[in-house]
Amino acid sequence: MSHFAQYQDGVYADATEGRLPSLPYHHEQLRDMAAGRLEPGPFGYVEGSAGRERTADANADAFARYALRPRSLRPGAEHSGDLGVTLFGRRYPSPLLTAPIGVLEQVHEESELAVARGANPVGVPVVLSTASSTPMEEVAEAADEWWYQLYWPSDDELAESFVRRATAAGASAIVVTCDTKRLGWRPRDLSLGHLPFLRSQGTANYFSDPEFRSRLKADPEPGGVFTEAVFHFLGAFASKALSTENIARIRQWTDLPVLVKGVVRGDEAADLVDAGVDGIVVSNHGGRQIDNAVAALDALPEVVDAVGDRATVLFDSGVRSGADVAVAMALGAQAVLLGRPWVYGLAVEGAAGVEHVLRATLAELQITAELMGKDAAELDASDVTRRP
């Protein structure tokens, strides 16, 4: 039985001793604190989205269109509220994971290591971005549980190297992001000329990779051919020919579960499952890739229907609270990836800020599930309705 809800009791108990929380519990307040800590470039990179940011707005607005339908007086309701879920044969204490977000060195000097230290006490797996600021092997030493997110590069041999490294380092799953064949049109970054990769930020997995380094005339270290390494990275970052056939090749490189992230159509999800994918992450990249795209939450039921029980469906984009997680699970997600909120916690208080956000999200989720009269994994379409 999960006990995340006890976090709320601890906050009130601390208050009786005059100890109030140093961080807020509303996403908007935490975001504003992070904006005061970060330089405009890094803050705009995290907060910004594609075009007029209509997709990002739609992601958040979509949650307001769905209402939970509590039924508190269920038989056995006194036992409800457990958050445990089983994914790919492994039992997890909650359905929450950290979404893969790269270039975290611009947010906090300890980057992914701080994320791991914040997530470990809460039992939340870290999904590590290919564009991380720390090599995957170092993150593996710090993280109790982690998955590896792959931006499939233009060089298939480099893709294979990344997957084999992640498998050898102890990742529990491979998550292929399919919606980033190139960077989306992001006006905030353009206005500031802020592309951190040009400063060699977010390149740690590349610069530490033997396959990548073998393509260079000199090592990408101080005194090496820095410009060559950066521009080779930019050329290798993403494959424009990514297809279900490419993704199926991962089976030759790893025996880990393989998920594809960035799917908002049922027909594409079905094709991927036919190709042997184990899981789908319904996501529009938090609105960062295409402006005026469908809200990820609105796409979730279609993907769930198309996949059925043939694969595991996860969700991200627009999640800002534990109640949002409950809505996504009622619509069919078996687990949820949380993104921007913990990044702002990281910016303000490092590992402690990450832990704060995750604990608060899980406490609200457990309280919501208890008040719904169900365990989180039992939430289904009968527990949610679309508002007029």
Compose a concise summary of this entry.
This protein has 388 residues and is of the alpha/beta class. The protein has 16 helices and twelve strands. It has an eight-stranded parallel β-sheet with strand order 4-11-10-9-8-7-6-5. Strands 1-12 form a two-stranded antiparallel sheet.
Q: Provide the β-strand percentage band.
A: 5-15%
Radius of gyration: 20 Å
What is the spatial order of strands in the main beta sheet? Answer: 4-11-10-9-8-7-6-5
Order of helices and strands: HHHHEEEEHEHEHEHHHHHEHEHEHEHE
By helix and strand content, what is the structural category?
alpha/beta
Helix content: 40-55%
- For this structure, the quaternary state is single chain
Organism: Nocardiopsis kunsanensis
GO molecular function: FMN binding; oxidoreductase activity
Protein name: Oxidoreductase
InterPro entries: Aldolase_TIM, Alpha-hydoxy_acid_DH_FMN, FMN-dep_DH, FMN_HAD, FMN_hydac_DH_AS
Structure explained in plain terms:
- The chain is an alpha/beta fold and 388 residues long.
- The chain has a single domain (6-60, 88-363), classed as TIM Barrel.
- The protein has 16 helices and 12 strands.
- Strand 5, helix 6 and strand 6 form a beta-alpha-beta unit.
- Helix 5 (111-119) packs parallel to helix 16 (340-372).
- The two termini are 36 Å apart.
- The relative contact order is 0.20.
- The active site is at residue 285.
- It comes from Nocardiopsis kunsanensis.
- Residues 19-388 form the FMN hydroxy acid dehydrogenase domain.
- Keywords: Flavoprotein, FMN, Oxidoreductase.
